[in-house]
Specification:
Layout lengths: L6 E5 L3 H11 L4 E7 L12 E8 L2 E7 L11 E6 L2 H13 L3 E2 L4 E3 L5 E6 H7 L4 H11 L7 H9 L1
Parallel strand pairs: 1-4, 5-8
Antiparallel strand pairs: 2-3, 3-4, 6-7, 7-8
Length: about 160
């Protein structure tokens, strides 16, 4: 039975490359199917990879090689909850080290322009803490960071 909901991500001819990177980088991820174009289309020709069905951390996705018209923006991102600094570093470094770009507050972009939030659970817990002093300290510390430093968040929480 086909899925009722799938995230469709637009690529400029690189959907299969991106899907394979995600499958090799994140757990519970895979390239499920590659579909070739049955005929010519504005961004390609018959036989080109048109769509790629893939899963990223359990989320069903469809990569569409639609051309350069609609680039990715920060309006959509995958948020990856991490348990420790080693896991945070692993995902951050994988994205940045494969042609990606660092941003702020735990955000980065992969080489295809897709945004990722590499977010340690300790940060999420601290920012949502009912104690406004703790949540503000954690938030202010986060605002100074690119990749999240869990030790610095812990220090900020305790004041």
């Amino acid at each position: 039975m086909p899925r009722k909901n799938t995230v469709c991500l637009w690529y400029n001819g690189t959907a299969e490359e991106a899907a394979r990177f995600y499958a090799n980088t994140f757990p519970d991820s895979a390239v499920d199917a590659v579909h070739l174009a049955p005929g010519a289309y504005p961004s390609g020709k018959q036989g080109d990879v048109l769509t790629v069905e893939f899963t990223v951390m359990g989320i069903p996705c469809l990569g569409l090689n639609g051309g350069p018209i609609f680039p990715h923006t920060e309006a959509f991102s995958f948020q990856v909850a991490t348990d420790d600094q080693a896991e945070t570093d692993h995902y951050w470094d994988a994205i940045i080290g494969n042609g990606g770009q660092a941003s702020t507050c735990g955000w980065c972009k992969d080489k295809w322009g897709l945004s990722w939030q590499i977010t340690p659970r300790v940060l999420t817990d601290a920012i949502s803490n009912p104690d406004p002093v703790i949540s503000k300290r954690a938030f202010e510390a986060m605002m100074t960071m690119s990749k999240i430093d869990i030790a610095a968040i812990a220090i900020a929480i305790t004041g």
